[in-house]
Amino acid sequence: MKISEQWLRQWANPSVDSQTLGEQLTMAGLELDGLEMVAPPFTGVVVGEVVECIQHPDADRLRVTKVNIGTDELLQIVCGAPNVRVGLKVAVATIGAVLPSDDDKGFKIKKGKLRGVESQGMLCGASEIGLVDKIDGLIELPDDAPIGVDVRDYLGLDNQIFEIAITPNRGDCLSVLGLAREIAVINRLPLNRNQVTPVVPSTNQTVGVQVLATQACPRYLAQRIDGIDRTKASPKWLEDALVASGVRTHNFLVDVTNFVLLELGQPLHAFDADKIVGDIVVRQANAGESVELLNEQTITLTGDELVIADDEGILALAGIMGGARSAVSDETTSIVLESAHFDQLAIAGRARRFGLHTDASQRFERGVDFELPQLALDRATSLIISVAGGQAGAITTVQTVEQLPKRAIIEVPVAKIDELLGVQIAADEMVDILNRLEIKTTLQHDTLICQAPSHRFDINIAQDIVEEVARIYGYAKIEPRLPSFAVDMSYDDGADLVHHLKLSLVNADYHEAVSFSFSDEKIERLFDEATLGEVLALANPISSDLAVMRRTLLSSLLPIVSYNINRQQSRVRLFETGLSFVGANIKELTQTPSLAIVATGNVTSEQSHANRAMDFYDLKRDIEALLPSTLDGRHIRYERANVAFLHPGQSAVLMVDGETLGWFGQLHPSIAKALDLPVVWVAQLQLDGLVALHRRAVSVSAPSKFPQVRRDLAVLVDTAVSWQQLEQQIRQSAGKYLQDTWLFDVYQGDRLPAGKHSLAFAMVFQDDLATLEEEQIKKATDQVLADLAAQYHAHLRD
To answer: What pTM was estimated for this model as a whole?
Structure first.
């Protein structure tokens, strides 16, 4: 934002130079990006008056003038400007003057001749003294410009222009009022507010207004002004203020609204009153409505935009830009001035949607003081009538007070401020700082009771109050010191354990993937709700293929597999850790930390010998590598998975101590076909469960010095009975000396009765204190056989 220093100092004028003033604003959080004069340096240019103007004897386009610059003799200057004439007050570069040039060395004026006629200087256009040309020809100074005065002094060209970077949270500083308020507080000065006297209505003309979108527009003011003299130009002081602030001047009515915008921060808009049909209506747009804007751009609205309309359609895109149909022109003598408060969320994002960026939208998106509309309207009306005359009608005000922003009470313990800033500031000084910032503050029992003013949308919590105290107190006054803190020696090993799990997979030749938590609804629907639960759709997805929350990490990993296969990568092995989301709405949403694996192709890379396609047991090996090495078979159990999106014959559920840890197996062929994938092996485990297993305390004991004894047991049992059931029964029945057991043979053939199969188990016995006797081992084996027979009708195979 560019703003004139001279304009700022009219409101608050501290006894510091321009550079210091800029540094003060920077240290207050309003960074000074640049500091430059209104015009580049030049010397020797004064105000003069053309007293004689005749045709050059040898050039049709040149004139020979006599110019009075307040000296004893008139200067003869040859000039080719089309607007040179007798009586014109103009900028005169005298002999020896140095004008701005592109090479920064300056252009020096010398005595010379033009087509044989002597010229003792130069009459200047605006661009020749570093200003913007408004007309073709010489700069035309006002008739009352004093002859002989230095043009730099007369035009205020030594005035500095501040270019200040306003952060998004400080929309209140996008005005002279806002910046001057900061300067006044920093320098402990009073703020010289303009005393605006409301214009007494002189006609009975009123404006009909209906506000249908009260939440988006809780306050709307409109006033009609008739009989405006459009021959009146903008006063020089008003034009200078706008130009110095980087705003191009247009016509008087537009200049006034821009001036009030920069001065107070309240956007205004002027409608041609004769082009409004019926009442002004503030409403939401209808989807498909279109409007031609002032920049000649026609846009089609989606339905969530706020518009100003009348009986014939849209007049303006509220808070952003007016429409062409109701625009004021050079013939407009009756206007309706609009001054309103629009809610931030009703304006935010709408301008960017249509490729627009306006001064109004920039301010409304950040929040405009909801108490400003009345003051700004009075200021604009008084300026218009004081310069161009006219008759003002009564102001129409439509407001819904309960929808205006609320300013809650914020309580901040003084000790909290001392703690956060690391410096002790007297409570009375804090109260003084905050009250000077117009934050109503009192001290009650060592606690600051604060209420933010209407222009501070960024103050909502205690930390905001602390920040205000710090920046006005002065960051330079806060000396650096080491913080005092208690050392917490507790250690959360969760991150390290997760990293350990990842390394296990990396060592098995898997690659880690990092993807969005969103997925494609078409992929998500391939997985059954009975297993995973309901899908949660996003209200505002970033793209159509990321429209729902993923219920399983496979929704993110499978498209990556497809992407790689389509690029001739036949062997893909990936894993990912992250959250899966289950629930139809936010209140019922369950977020589960998970670890997922996908793999397809051969077991090893193609350089290996005796390569083969990956199978179920390869995946099972990779899963078991994630389990603690101290976890023996007594705790681990596998069951056939009843998961619809897994192959029914090549999938399993992993259970540890009776708790389900996850599932793994081959992706169901129908889903693989739908995604145009080959055989894919997948797994998903509960990450918290895996971490908890690795955290388990392990008891360590010396190995027994007494020998182990192995007994093999082959039993006939119905094929419906699984080996896991028998193994579990063996562990329960074999007694305390059983160290381990495992299945080592399965036989089913013609030599066995129909419906039977033979399962052979190894059993290892050992005592830590003595050598086992044969009788002890026989007793344990007999007990196992008896229990297997009783529970599963198993018999010892002949």
So the answer is: 0.62
